[in-house]
């Protein structure tokens, strides 16, 4: 009922219906969906600000019960950022959604596609190509958008390769124009960067928990 009211832009009635769904349902997934809809409904209807919606979603993110839903929460914040013309914030939250997503292929597809479209709008062909490719890996072939995404991916693949080739050639030309001393300094800097990346990888591996050890769960 709340979703129907929402589709009819009856924000007040939608909020009441979602509130009742949250109160009456013993199923936590239903409670979660109702609460998230309440937060976004207030904002989209103009009855609440984007800051209030984001504050509520951040509270939900901090709730341990919502660990498996964090990808949806970050995705919701990204959508709010988009509507507020905050493209940088949208990209950041779409990426966070992807980073925390575990096994939710549908949510991953939506986040990858949203990022691909944003990069396409900005004519960042390399990034758009990578993200359309990633979308195809998780988007069901039965999805009505699949064919369009496939065409975009195929068209951008060759463009992306050409851009990478041009970038490599430009880099080689710049290096060739350097003096021997400048080339030596560049090589030293690259070696330092490579060594630091190796150290970071070792540190990250050392801090990774042992996945074979037993895991305890706290039930709220």
Strand content: under 5%
Task: Return the average pLDDT rounded to an integer.
Answer: 82
Number of H/I helices:
10
Assembly of the depicted chains: single chain
Number of strands: 0
Please give a quick description of this structure.
This protein has 220 residues and is mainly α. The protein is built from ten helices and no strands.
Question: What do these coordinates show?
Answer:
- The protein has 220 residues and is mainly alpha-helical.
- It is 76% helix and 0% strand.
- Helix 2 (11-24) runs antiparallel to helix 3 (28-44) and helix 7 runs antiparallel to helix 8.
State the main characteristics.
0% strand; disordered C terminus; 220 residues; single chain; mainly alpha; elongated
Which helices and strands appear, and what pairs or packs with what?
Layout: H1 2-7, H2 11-24, H3 28-44, H4 50-62, H5 70-83, H6 87-100, H7 105-121, H8 125-138, H9 146-176, H10 180-206
């Amino acid at each position: 009922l709340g979703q129907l009211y929402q589709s009819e832009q009856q924000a007040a009635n939608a909020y009441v219906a979602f509130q009742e769904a949250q109160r009456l349902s013993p199923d936590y997934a239903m409670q979660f969906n109702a609460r998230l809809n309440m937060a976004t409904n207030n904002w989209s209807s103009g009855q609440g600000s984007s800051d209030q919606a984001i504050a509520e979603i951040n509270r939900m993110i901090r709730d341990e019960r919502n660990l498996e839903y964090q990808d949806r929460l970050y995705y919701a914040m990204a959508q709010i950022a988009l509507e507020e013309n905050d493209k940088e914030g949208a990209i950041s939250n779409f990426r966070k959604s992807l980073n925390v997503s575990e096994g939710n292929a549908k949510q991953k597809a939506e986040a990858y596609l949203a990022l691909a479209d944003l990069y396409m709008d900005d004519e960042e062909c390399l990034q758009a190509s990578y993200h359309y490719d990633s979308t195809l890996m998780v988007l069901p072939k039965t999805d009505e958008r699949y064919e369009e995404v496939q065409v975009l991916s195929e068209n951008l693949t060759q463009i992306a390769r050409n851009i990478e080739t041009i970038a490599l050639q430009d880099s080689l030309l710049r290096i060739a124009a350097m003096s021997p001393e400048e080339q030596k300094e560049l090589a030293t800097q690259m070696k330092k960067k490579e060594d630091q990346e190796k150290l970071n990888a070792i540190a990250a591996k050392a801090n990774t928990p042992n996945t074979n050890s037993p895991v305890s769960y706290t039930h709220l």
